[in-house]
Design brief:
By secondary structure, the chain is α/β, with parallel strands linked by helices. The strands form three sheets. It has a five-stranded mixed β-barrel. The N and C termini lie far apart (211 Å). Helix 4 packs parallel to helix 8 and helix 5 packs parallel to helix 6. 46% of the residues lie in helices and 21% in strands. It is elongated and about 220 Å long. Among the domains are: 99 residues, Nucleic acid-binding proteins (OB fold (Dihydrolipoamide Acetyltransferase, E2P)); 128 residues, Rossmann fold (3-Layer(aba) Sandwich), CATH 3.40.50.10550; 41 residues, no CATH class. Helix 4 links the parallel strand 6 and strand 7. It contains eleven helices and 13 strands.
């Protein structure tokens, strides 16, 4: 009879002897590097058959890798088959790894991503902002997973006032895409939440494949409610992350991103309340001062009359001063005009006097008495007619000569002309 340890040890020896060194080809799944530097993953059959083998690559061999392994990659492994005796599990100890082409699922992922991206489903312009203070948050996830508990706990701790509405759905397996679509359609139809979370825990690429289904991606794009994707761990990426309005690295982070902290909201409300309190008090103080002023004015009308009288006196003084100033200005202007008129009149009189003197001199020079005074005589006949030519005279004729100082009567004794 075999003991468990002996049987496992015998099987391990048999496998080691039979598969001391071999090469196997398949698709990486669930690849993870531990803190120790060792790497653990599952190798799936590359042809799509339901066969897997657990693999371990220790730190020394992992440090020699020429590339960064990722889920979905087709690789060739060289190593040996062994049994992990504490659990009695078959495992493949990897000594070397090289790529042999992308995995089938990863290739499908890239093709669908390219197709949907060309349709504009991943454009940043179609992303919608989340409601800053939601009243209800919906979550599409499995009822049996730890994700629902984590999200509910996070919301209860951060935002206890926010209600959580659950839309249960499968999150893994062939029926998961249709179930996810139905849950999102129910959320859209009921219109009872402000934000919708699409959540699932971490896993391999095939575990998360439902969130790469085209039906699910298009349902997220058509959902009228902003969708936050919290699928897998931070390193996991699905097509649902690209089309969602916001991508969270984990389900817990999705709950934190869609609802503000209650303490932050209360602090903001306290700040706003304090500011409003100060403004209200300032307004009340201002109005109270105005009311006191009006009350004092109404209780002492004599003061108001006195102020009005002072105002009237001030305006009266200003009116008198203005009138006097204007009269003074006008008087000065009149005096200046009068002086100018007097100067002009004096000048005119002087000019007239000078002209009169000149006329008087000219008249004086034309006075016959003046001419007679210079030795000339005015000669006329007996009838008083002036004699101005020798032809008017005859011998024996009596003539009258007016001199400057008297008159003489003479008789012509001879007549001589200048021409004769």
């Amino acid at each position: 009879m075999w003991g468990v340890a002996a049987l496992v040890h015998a099987i391990s020896d048999t496998l080691t002897a039979r598969f001391a060194a071999c090469t196997v080809r398949g698709e990486l799944s669930g690849y993870a590097r531990a803190a120790s530097g060792h790497c653990y993953f599952t190798l799936k059959d590359g042809s799509g058959d339901a066969a897997t083998v657990r693999c371990a690559m220790f730190k020394r061999a992992a440090s020699l890798l020429p590339f960064v392994p990722a889920d979905g990659q087709q690789v060739q492994l060289r190593g040996r088959v062994a049994v992990y005796e504490p659990r009695g599990e078959l495992q493949f100890i990897v000594e070397a790894m090289q790529r042999s082409g992308d995995g089938l699922l990863y290739e499908q992922f890239l093709q669908l991503k390219k197709k949907l991206e060309s349709e504009g489903l991943f454009e940043a312009s179609r992303k919608r902002p989340l409601v800053s203070h939601p009243r209800r948050i919906g979550i599409v996830t499995s009822l049996g997973g730890a994700v629902l508990h984590d999200v509910a706990t996070t919301l209860a701790r951060r935002s206890a006032q926010v209600e959580l509405v659950v839309y249960p759905s499968l999150v893994q397996g062939p029926e998961a895409p249709a179930s996810l679509v139905a849950a999102m359609e129910a959320a859209s139809r009921r219109s009872e939440v402000d934000t919708l979370l699409l959540c699932r825990g971490g896993g391999s690429i095939e575990d998360l494949w439902a969130f790469n289904d085209e039906r699910v991606v298009r349902a997220i794009a058509a959902c009228p409610v902003p969708v936050v994707s919290g699928v897998g761990h931070e390193t996991d990426t699905t097509l649902a992350d690209f089309v969602a309005d916001l991508r969270a690295p984990t389900p817990t982070a999705a709950a934190e991103l869609c609802a503000p902290s209650r303490f932050d909201s209360l602090a903001m409300l306290d700040t706003a309340a304090a500011a409003m309190h100060r403004r209200v008090h300032r307004a009340i103080d201002t109005q109270a001062q105005r009311l006191d002023t009006l009350a004092m004015r109404s209780l002492r009308p004599v003061d108001a009359v006195r102020r009005q009288a002072q105002s009237l006196n001030l305006w009266s003084l200003r009116l008198v001063a203005t009138t006097q100033r204007r009269l003074s200005t006008r008087t000065q202007a009149l005096q200046l005009s009068a002086a100018r008129f007097q100067r002009a009149s004096a000048a005119s009189m002087q000019t007239a006097a000078t002209a009169l003197d000149r006329l008087e001199a000219r008249l004086r020079s034309l006075d016959p008495a003046v001419v007679l005074g210079r030795g000339y005589a005015w000669v006329s006949d007996e009838a008083g007619r002036p004699l101005v030519s020798a032809s008017q005279l005859r011998v024996g004729q009596s003539v009258r000569a007016v001199l400057g100082d008297g008159v003489a009567v003479a008789q012509v004794t001879a007549v001589t002309t200048t021409s004769g």
